[in-house]
Amino acid sequence: MSESEQKLKELRNRIDTIDSKLLTLMSERADCAKSVAQVKQLEGDSFYYRPEREAQVLRSIMQNNQGPLDDEEVARLFREIMSACLALEQPIQVAYLGPEGTFTQAASIKHFGHSAVCVPMATIDEVFREVLAGAVNYGIVPVENSTEGVINHTLDSFMESPLKICGEVELRIHHHLLVSEHTRRDKISRIYSHAQSLAQCRKWLDSYYPSAERVAVNSNAEAAKRIKSEWHSAAIAGDMAAELYELEKVAEKIEDRPDNSTRFLIIGTQEALPSGQDKTSIMVSMRNQPGALHELLEPFHKGNIDLTRVETRPSNTGTWNYVFFIDFLGHVHDPKIAEVMKNVAAKASDLKILGSYPKGVL
């Protein structure tokens, strides 16, 4: 045996030993997770999943990570371990905006892991309805894109729903031009995708396929499915849709902005406790009078609260009435935030706290 072969054998033996230790430790962790579930059951706590606890664990793991794996990869591995341990007692059921192969499904897996049972829904309304009815534990819906802005349908759904926001996920969005085995690449005259994806790839399409018809469909997954039977069509979609429908990438990462990201919200019936790094979302109706917006924002300024988003939507209570959706850093259990909410409520005609939840860890 050569010196290099001997060295390779020693390294493989070392890996086998480490793997054996990892297996033992994962089994110990799973046993601890089952014990936690049993204690919660005795206390009558029906929520086995605690978003603030998971956020604290992942932050600690990334903070202590010394490589060579990067923080995001380490967090992904531990997310899967936590997901599998939680599923031993009760797999989480999650409704997402489908169909299969969408970015919302990818966000669901990123947040809950592969051990969660993810159920596709046709519309955002259906996601809210399934959670409210108790058919699933949680829902996940897109709320804003860094390029195209807010998803109005999601904001409007909160006006009527009592559900709480208990988490958020930020997903880097990469779009690819996909073709099937039947596509004649030199004859592509039609490109399918979701309207937002077409907008996010506008400049690339103008440069490479200026004459192709751009057809907006309900989802990128639907676009990927359609081109399976059309020889002159292509689709814009992500990795998950490409794998699901066995499509080939003609061009990768064709989004106009390399930092293109979409933020998703986790909705449920529970309130998340403080995790140490939290955000709060509220919905506020103001009286229709001069200076209303200034009055609304003044308590945040005086309280030195960091606003991360302010959106306006037409109210369903009357013409030319508006509702403000505001996100800011902090948790409603924090005394400073509670005082600001008291001052906002005094100025507003209606204040609805949509939820305080852990700030996305990735």
Automatic annotation (TrEMBL):
Residues 93-269 form the Prephenate dehydratase domain. Pathway: Amino-acid biosynthesis; L-phenylalanine biosynthesis; phenylpyruvate from prephenate: step 1/1; Metabolic intermediate biosynthesis; prephenate biosynthesis; prephenate from chorismate: step 1/1. One of its GO terms (molecular function) is prephenate dehydratase activity. Residues 2-93 form the Chorismate mutase domain. Its main location: cytoplasm. It is found in: Cytoplasm. Its EC number is 4.2.1.51, 5.4.99.5. Residues 281-358 form the ACT domain. Keywords: Amino-acid biosynthesis, Aromatic amino acid biosynthesis, Coiled coil, Cytoplasm, Isomerase, Lyase, Multifunctional enzyme, Phenylalanine biosynthesis. InterPro entries: ACT-like_dom_sf (IPR045865), ACT_dom (IPR002912), Chor_mutase/pphenate_deHydtase (IPR008242), Chorismate_II_sf (IPR036263), CM_dom_sf (IPR036979), CM_II_prokaryot (IPR002701), G/b/e-P-prot_chorismate_mutase (IPR010957), Preph_deHydtase (IPR001086). CDD domains: ACT_CM-PDT (cd04905), PBP2_PDT_1 (cd13630). It catalyses: prephenate + H(+) = 3-phenylpyruvate + CO2 + H2O; chorismate = prephenate. Residues 1-28 form a coiled coil. Catalyzes the Claisen rearrangement of chorismate to prephenate and the decarboxylation/dehydration of prephenate to phenylpyruvate. This is Bifunctional chorismate mutase/prephenate dehydratase. It comes from Zooshikella harenae. The gene is pheA.
